[in-house]
Amino acid sequence: MATAHGSAELMDFDEVFETYEPVLGFEVHVELSTKTKMFSAAPNEFGSAPNTNIAPVDLGLPGSLPTVNETAVRYSISLGLALGCQIAKSSRFARKNYFYPDLGKNYQISQFDEPIAFEGSVEVELEDGTTVTVPIERAHMEEDAGKLTHMGGSTGRIQGAEYSLVDYNRAGVPLVEIVTKPIYGAEKRAPEIAKAYVATIRDIVRSLGISEARMERGNLRCDANVSLRPRSKAGEEPAPLGTRTETKNVNSLRSVERAVRYEIQRQAAILAKGGTITQETRHWHEDTGTTSAGRPKSDADDYRYFPEPDLLPVVPSAELINELRAALPESPAIFRRRLQADYGFTDSEFRDILNANILVEMEETVKAGASPAQARKWWLGEILRIANAQGVEPGTLVTPFNVSELIALVESGQLTDRLARQVLEGVVAGEGSPDEVVKARGLAVVSDDTALIAAIDTALESQPDVLAKIRDGKVQAAGAVIGAVMKAMKGQADAARVRELVLERSSKL
Amino acid sequence: MTDLTRVTAAALAELLSTREVSSVEATRAHLDRIEAVDTDLHAFLHIDSDGALKRASEIDQLRADGHEVGPLAGVPVAVKDVLCTIGMPSTAGSKILEGWMPPYDATVVARMRSANLVLLGKTNMDEFAMGSSTEYSAYGPTRNPWDRERTPGGSGGGSAAAVGAFEAPFALGSDTGGSIRQPAAFTGTVGVKPTYGGVSRYGAIALASSLDQVGPVSRTVLDAALLHDVIGGHDPHDATSLTDFWPSFAAAAREGAEAPSLKGVRIGVIKELGGDGFQKGVNDRFTEALALAEAAGAEIVEVSAPHFEYGIAAYYLILPAEASSNLAKFDSVRFGLRVTPEGGGTVEQVMSATREAGFGPEVKRRVILGTYALSAGYYDAYYGSAQKVRTLIQRDFAAAFDRVDVLVSPSAPTTAFTFGEKTDDPLSMYLNDITTIPANLAGIPGMSLPMGLAAEDGLPTGLQIMAPAREDVRLYRIGAAFEALFAQQWGGSLLDQLPTMAGMGAERATVGAPAPAPASVLPVHGAPEPGFGTEPDGGTR
């Protein structure tokens, strides 16, 4: 029931750790940005009209058969390698059977006992620069399910809905599910580690170029497992793991941090009162910052897994693995250190970039031609301001390429900073590229000297005293004329050029 | 004039290519035959008269215009209802798919269309191919043309009966545990289960994915080979499809029939597939077949396959397990039947009501069995063990094929059984597949061809030939040799002894073929009937 969330009792966060120790675990689903789906030739595209990107196999039509997308396998191997995993010599797909209308076949093709990648670890860097190692159990390939929209209810959830609509466009989109081992010793940094881990996965998949990794679009989805166990004294055997909850689909970095923090506090309050934790999935509510009970989940959930008989095992050759290993980009930690050195930023300047989650955007903006200083100025300035106002990640507002275009327009004098901010506003509003916005809104700096000269002459003629002063060498008097010209040009003029022309005209008039 | 329904597909193709007859004439002759006998026989679930005649006329026009139309152009064919066909309902014999029109053709159907074959309609089958008698069709059973009180076998009883009763020269079937071969044995026809992966499964409504294989049903080995040549070969839409280059099966069949000799061929007789528990008439015909082979130069070797006794048990774990998952898609959400409980219901309640109403008893039995076998805690004991048995059976075959070229057995332990004889006892129905199941478990090819009539009931028996995986060509060469040796011995094709069917007297009188006597008084083999030999004999003339 979607009732009464937000009413749970919470224990003070710091107090929790006097008695309990949190243990974390994460399942992160990454949608791969392949051209077609995992098991069909239907396009893998976001935002198409419902039920247009579909093939018979995505609907589970009788007689249809899946075939494996080779690019998705390559991407999965690359990801496994980037996570420090071993790659299976032979990997099998398996059917996970359960009835739900978002699955056309009523089974999901996933991997069970023979995942493509297993036994790895990821270095996660926290805000203060310390590094935590997160152990990876496995990364396996599977297909996404369709999208259900529940209609007629007040909550948008299935409870109370009159009917539900299914969009199978997402059904069959390739996913890699990355499963960590239990993460011990996180202590009070648990929420921070959660956020940093998901951010690291996001940075890795982006650097591999295998996913858009846009959390707000569901390209990257995190299920956070949290359990508490009594703190053991030094020299004692650690207590067995407590009952865990799995908070599903936490879809922003900030939410991951908040959800983990909330679950720690909620569970501690229950345990402190002598209660027990129910093993269940929980829904995260962005608005209230709380979780609510989903469905009970036990280890005895029976998905009747068995090897998918319609597909052959995936047996990647040593050559392929070596090729993909050689093509791996540097790890995010090394990447960060290199960028800081390349850009010549101080630690504190660089920390701002990391905290704003714009490192990849920065790099791509610089790659597209902007100077690091200019890129930093725009991402940390106007873009971050809009992002904060809208409550979204800066990277979701505008592409690095567009930012570099904007910077180029400023540097070439076609836009002033003031105009550029208006152009950015148009780009964020979806009006097109900077060039298109400039044209559509008519925002370009007036670089036509004839128009400027006409305005200058008018201004000088109407202020003969100023003209006289300028002719006397009192150049600072030009400011009044420049201001009048800029006003006449509605700000769409380059002030430096206006100044030059004012001086030039003064001597001629 | 020749009765165009009595000639083989190969002979008909020849008549068409020389333009002695048109495809419209050939198609109309078969549609007339269907109209005359199928009310009684019920081999077809859907007859596409208009579509078939239209296509036939197009093909005639293509030929008249001098286009290259292909060797089988204009020949009619029947299609088991398990295969998806654009423009024709595809129900797999189930109420849950009643009237369902697939938006795509099965690969095998598309290949037949490209080869300019004329699709007559869809043939009856046990629901989702679960059964060995076609009695589990949701649309009523098919009768056996040899004795209408008996089943034609199953699940592909419709295709076998249609071909055996001259309603179609050949047809497509699907074989998961014998659904092509056992009906072929029961109806005196030829049926081939190709090597797993040799023929695309795309568009074949899945029963058990690791066992299913589409194959031809015909009256002669050559006709089966011709159809196999059309439908076989790699299909990128089926991940389990082999990428092998396949030789011409028709060439192999012609070669085998030309100088019927089995000189130097080592034929293995599987000790475990025969003898006690098999009908006497079946054993007798099998013994004679071996003697015939020996006389033709073959070396007969007895081999043992010690793990075959676990074959049925393993099969009835693997099949229901895969089927329970494959049939989960029938949930009313996207296609097919939808039953809403009174007063409405949740999606789960609608799914449940639909499956309750839409599935028949055998389907429910196997879905429940399979769901159980895959359950956590039981998986290793059931599905896991069954897969191990499967490996052991593959090893039995490998050991046997080290010693022999082909293996033979009766295609079924009995001749056709009567309606209702086994429906009350599912296990006895399952046991009828003891001979055919091992080939599916091992993925190897198997053929059934007519082996003569059993003395005690005058009904057809079948000889099963099995070859190593990918050696389908061996089946056609050796099968065609056997067929020719039988024909020499019997003085003709077994189907020439098919009893007259109700309402067919007048038509049969016009065809110039001998009016067969009732099966009970026919010699099982021996002197040809008077007048025999006036018909084309399998396209080798």
Automatic annotation (TrEMBL), chain A:
Gene from which the chain derives: gatB
Keyword terms, alphabetized: ATP-binding, Ligase, Nucleotide-binding, Protein biosynthesis, Transferase
Top-rank lineage group of the source organism: Bacteria
Top enzyme category: ligase
Subunit structure: Heterotrimer of A, B and C subunits.
One GO BP annotation of this record: glutaminyl-tRNAGln biosynthesis via transamidation
UniProt cross-references to InterPro entries, sorted A to Z: Asn/Gln-tRNA_amidoTrfase_suB/E (IPR017959), Asn/Gln-tRNA_Trfase_suB/E_cat (IPR006075), Asn/Gln_amidotransferase (IPR018027), Asn/Gln_tRNA_amidoTrase-B-like (IPR003789), GatB (IPR004413), GatB_Yqey_C_2 (IPR023168), Gln-tRNA_amidoTrfase_suB_CS (IPR017958), Gln_synth/guanido_kin_cat_dom (IPR014746)
EC nos: 6.3.5.-
SMART domains: GatB_Yqey
Catalytic activity: L-glutamyl-tRNA(Gln) + L-glutamine + ATP + H2O = L-glutaminyl-tRNA(Gln) + L-glutamate + ADP + phosphate + H(+); L-aspartyl-tRNA(Asn) + L-glutamine + ATP + H2O = L-asparaginyl-tRNA(Asn) + L-glutamate + ADP + phosphate + 2 H(+)
Full protein name: Aspartyl/glutamyl-tRNA(Asn/Gln) amidotransferase subunit B
GO molecular function: asparaginyl-tRNA synthase (glutamine-hydrolyzing) activity; ATP binding; glutaminyl-tRNA synthase (glutamine-hydrolyzing) activity; transferase activity
Family: Belongs to the GatB/GatE family. GatB subfamily.
Job of this protein: Allows the formation of correctly charged Asn-tRNA(Asn) or Gln-tRNA(Gln) through the transamidation of misacylated Asp-tRNA(Asn) or Glu-tRNA(Gln) in organisms which lack either or both of asparaginyl-tRNA or glutaminyl-tRNA synthetases. The reaction takes place in the presence of glutamine and ATP through an activated phospho-Asp-tRNA(Asn) or phospho-Glu-tRNA(Gln).
TrEMBL record, chain B:
GO terms under biological process: translation
Protein name: Glutamyl-tRNA(Gln) amidotransferase subunit A
Keyword Repeat attributed: no
HAMAP family: GatA (MF_00120)
GO cellular component terms listed in the entry, alphabetical order: glutamyl-tRNA(Gln) amidotransferase complex
Keywords assigned by UniProt, alphabetized: ATP-binding, Ligase, Nucleotide-binding, Protein biosynthesis, Transferase
GO MF entries: ATP binding; glutaminyl-tRNA synthase (glutamine-hydrolyzing) activity; transferase activity
Organism in which the protein naturally occurs: Naasia lichenicola
EC number: 6.3.5.7
